[in-house]
Design a protein that fits this description.
The protein contains 4 helices and 8 strands; from the N terminus they run ββββββββαααα. It is α+β, with helices and mostly antiparallel strands. The chain folds into 2 domains: 82 residues, Immunoglobulins (Immunoglobulin-like); 72 residues, no CATH class. Strand 4 and strand 5 form a beta hairpin.
Length: 172
């Protein structure tokens, strides 16, 4: 008698989260969509959470209207019929309604050094400007104007420039 060996390795489901935007204003709707699959079975449950607090279950899409500013993490937990779990996360920023998605379009140099500390263009350099630069650091407006947002002087705009702006804003 021949012995047949079966591969019974279970595979966890796959999951990803897509946001319609990574920066929203207070009281503006954030839309999220889940993409899931399970190559060796079916998905048995989905759970959405924001900063660890469950907000919705068993839906492939989720809408949320934030009431306060800050950086949030949207987490999707997917469980398959074998009990295996996968987690997908997306970070997004909620800004004041005045800043909104225009972020860097009206930036200004407040101290005449050529750098735009007032990223959101509201006339003062605050943490909101740090948030706007963080949210828009890969935006074409920023990348096409590196000289305005290169706080480290390395001819590149990245997360280190956001950190440097944070230090500048909080030490003033």
């Amino acid at each position: 008698m021949d012995v047949v060996e079966l591969n019974t390795t279970l595979r966890a489901p796959t999951a990803s989260v897509s946001l319609d935007q990574t920066t929203v204003s207070v009281n503006e709707t954030l839309e999220a969509t889940a993409t899931t699959s399970d190559g060796d079975g079916t998905i048995s449950s989905l759970r959405w959470a924001i900063d660890g607090e469950t907000v919705e279950t068993n839906q492939t899409s989720y809408s949320w209207v934030p009431e306060s500013t800050g950086e949030y993490t949207l987490t999707l937990t997917v469980v398959d019929d074998d009990g295996l779990t996968t987690i997908a996360k997306q970070v997004f920023l909620v800004e004041t309604a005045a800043t909104g998605k225009t972020g860097v379009n009206h930036s200004a140099d407040l101290d005449g050094d050529g750098l735009h500390e007032d990223v959101n263009g509201d006339g003062v350099a605050t943490i909101s400007d740090v948030q706007a630069l963080f949210a828009n650091r890969n935006n074409a407006t920023v990348q096409d104007s590196v000289n305005k947002f290169d706080f480290t002087g390395n001819n590149n705009v990245n997360i280190v420039d956001v950190q440097r702006l944070f230090v500048n804003v909080t030490s003033s």
